[in-house]
Amino acid sequence: MEDTLLMIPGPTTVPKRVLDAMAQPIVNHRGPVYGEILEETTAMMSEVFQTDNKSYLLTGSGTSAMEAAIANIVEKGDKVINVVSGKFGQRLQQLTEVFGGESIEIAVPWGQAADPEEIKRVLDENDDVKALTMIHNESSTAVVNPIQEVGKIMKDYDALFVVDTVSSLAGDNVKVDEYGLDICLTGSQKCIAAPPGMAAITINDDAWKVIDSVDSPTYYLDLKAMRKSGDKSPSQTPYTPNVSMTYAMREALSMVLEEGLDARIKRHHIGAEATREAAKTLGLDLFAREGDYSNTLTAINMPEGVTDNQLRGTMRNKYQIELAGGQDHLKGNIFRIGHMGTTGLHELAMTFACLEMTLKEFGFEFESGAGVAALEDIYLKNL
Ligand SMILES: Cc1ncc(COP(=O)(O)O)c(C=O)c1O
């Protein structure tokens, strides 16, 4: 069990340094020691978000930050454009509706990235739009959406730009201030490589103006309460935070910054390219449209002649490697390989060696080692 290799799009393998940090004693969450840890961690969070805004930690998974983002800006009847290109885009749309918003959906075929021109057209056609939501890295389809281009367009409109970077922050380019992201949120368990159970959100002045004007029905996820507690000295959270997870986040974010954001993102890009090349070399087809590929995970069409149970079951039971399946209508039709967090050549080489053996067991033919050799070529090219 301990040796299972997690090649799923989160949770990812957590470095020992981070696990060890969690073993530190629990401290008073209202005292100066925790205050200092919280301030240090949220400052690093803002550095990773590449913003001058303050950031807030939420004890909850990524979805808690998605809910906080929507619950604090959407009131009954508010128009919100939801770009829906997969499962997580759908989630932001559902949250919009839960909080009484009127969703204007931009439906993007699963496997493709949103088209900025289409977004501009929908913005022009609709007055009084309060916000536009987008998933940067749609983990259900392994597609990256063009947040930088859309951010440029959004500068000409009053609507807030709300972006989920749960599976991209610290693994792909997310420059909150430069791109003009008004609210940006993430989770602990993906590219940051901390355990699951903590989320983070950062909010600019335009978004705070909207939040201050909204009488939100949410209690636990009230961002105004988070700001008030965060501003205290020592800094606090409104309710008891997960102290151990704060230690984990502090350590994991330190590791991100020690590696350097650019170097870490480049490492993710190389892993993504190597995965795609290895898969193609084995005769496998990628699910996402060319050019829209995610840099943190890859979705591969399930090849004819093997079922999801056979392929992922063999990888799990024989080789102790966890791959992810498809979600909703993609169940059984794709499998996904996560290459995020600390995952690199070691893990990918092991995964492709075992994937080759699994495919051979089910009758597929290719030269042994071809996938691993394709990985090597990409890594050698990037030495
Ligand atoms: C892009 C994206 N957004 C949101 C979430 C939800 O995060 P969580 O499962 O931590 O609530 C996920 C989880 O996979 C995700 O990949």
TrEMBL record:
Keywords noted in UniProt: Aminotransferase, Pyridoxal phosphate, Transferase
Enzyme Commission number(s) of this protein: 2.6.1.1
Highest taxon in the source lineage: Archaea
Pfam family, one: Aminotran_5
Names of the cofactor(s): pyridoxal 5'-phosphate
A GO biological process held by the record: glycine biosynthetic process, by transamination of glyoxylate
InterPro entries membership: Aminotrans_V_dom, PyrdxlP-dep_Trfase, PyrdxlP-dep_Trfase_major, PyrdxlP-dep_Trfase_small, SP_NH2Trfase/AEP_transaminase
Primary enzyme class: transferase
Residue span(s) of domain Aminotransferase class V: 7-327
Gene3D superfamilies: Aspartate Aminotransferase, domain 1, Type I PLP-dependent aspartate aminotransferase-like (Major domain)
Transferase among keywords: yes
Similarity section: Belongs to the class-V pyridoxal-phosphate-dependent aminotransferase family.
PANTHER family: ALANINE--GLYOXYLATE AMINOTRANSFERASE 1 (PTHR21152:SF24), AMINOTRANSFERASE CLASS V (PTHR21152)
Protein name, per record: Putative aspartate aminotransferase
Organism: Methanosphaera stadtmanae (strain ATCC 43021 / DSM 3091 / JCM 11832 / MCB-3)
